[in-house]
Amino acid sequence: MPDSQPLQGELSESQTEDEARTRLPVPVNALPATLYLLPMSDRPFFPAQTFPLLLNERPWLETIDRIGETAHKMVGLVLVKPDRPEDARQHDFHLVGTAVRMHRPRRADGKMQFIAEGVKRFRILDWISIKPPYLVKVEYPSDGRNQNSDELRAYAMAIINTIKDLVPLNPLYTEELKFFLNRFSPNEPSALADFAASLTTSSKDDLQQVLGAFNLRRRMEKVLVLIKKELDVAKLQSHIRRQVTDKIEKQQREFFLREQLKAIQKELGIAKDDRTADVERFRDRISKLNLKPPVEKRIEDELQKLSLLETGSPEYAVTRNYLDWLTQLPWGKHSKDKLDLKRARKILDRDHYGLDDVKDRIIEFLAVGA
Predict the structure, then answer these.
(1) Total count of domains within the chain
(2) Among 220, 239, 258, residue at a domain's last position
(3) What pTM did the predictor assign?
């Protein structure tokens, strides 16, 4: 980030994002008993995640500075209910969040950025400060179960296979993800479950339920349901995408075939382009009409205009429609008017009840014409 400034307590420049990804997990007994909090509004942060976070500088600058003063450089990320984290109050915070280690904090243009390395989920026990910077007492419950059980390994294998099925279906997932997934072992189901949950596009409430599930079996069950739903949606998207692609390809193929047919017919002299066909059709109609010189001149001007326009232009369509209307009028053909006022009045009274004012106007019009 250009022109960025380091924040208080920033790690050394030699600390890279790759180092953050390969850092060994901190033992539970080394985790802090109190954490400063930062609210998350879009979705919860999981222990298996590592990526940059971007925050508004206000009102979190003091919080970042306080974190920089600590030895552990850790902060708690907690999902809040309001869409704007700045509007969150104590009762808007969920009880379960993720303790993350903060790397390379920077600020520029009223924004703050740092690399967040998820470490472990925690539960809020008590609030020390209910205003920014938020400070709480926390505990880190264990998964409560042997991670090497056959049931958990079965869940882990089901999750891994489902994610591998997702890779070719969803363009957001790449082969690199599949390679990265091979690093996870069925013997480490906790990290795998958190990683899989972070991949989904599930609602923030569903993801928060996964984060809040300290029981590992229940957590993996929830994750498997979410990842299966993701697979079903990806299959449907793939089916729709394939249908649209086939339809477009069919239309393009038909268009090219029609154009080729027109070109062949034109070369053989058995077909004319649309513009020539339109002009000849209108001239054929004109030859059958009894036109006065002014009318004939106007139609001829429009025909000349039509012959110069591109068939795909909007003006071509307007001119063609105008000529179509002009050449279908009965020029020079007249009907014999029947202006018998008594007979007209009789027909009006017979076919229409009331409407005396309207009938009088019609009779007046006929009388003037007579």
Answers:
(1) 4
(2) 239
(3) 0.58
- Enclosing domain of residue 54: 5-139
- The DSSP line for 35-96 is EEEEEESSS---TT-EEEEEEEHHHHHHHHHHHHHSSS-EEEEEEBSSSSGGG--GGGB-SE
Whole-angstrom CA distances from 341 to 325, 338, 345, 360 are 33, 9, 6, 11
List pLDDT tens digits, range 69-102.
Answer: 888 889 999 999 877 777 778 888 999 999 999 8
Do the domain assignments include residue 259? Answer: no
The one-letter amino acid code at 148 reads: N
Using CA atoms, how far apart are residues 248 and 250, in angstroms rounded to an integer?
A: 5
21-74: pLDDT as tens digits: 444 444 444 789 999 999 988 899 999 788 888 888 777 888 888 888 888 889
Do 116 and 74 contact (CB within 8 A), yes or no? Answer: no
CB-based contact 68:43 (threshold 8 Å): no
Let me know how long the chain is. Answer: 370
- First vs last C-alpha separation in the chain: 90
